[in-house]
Amino acid sequence: MKKMAEKGWELAFVNSGEASYSGRGNSNGIFITRYGFKRKRKTPVAQSSN
Fold this sequence. Notes:
The chain has no helices and two strands.
């Protein structure tokens, strides 16, 4: 399988968050990381002439 970079994708942003309390008697938590990727356009966008 090709790597994402070889397919034209690049890392655009990373968001993270945590939820550490889920109610009385619950000491468990969760940590979430979201990775956002973007891919470069292969063809240029046509500009309108005004």
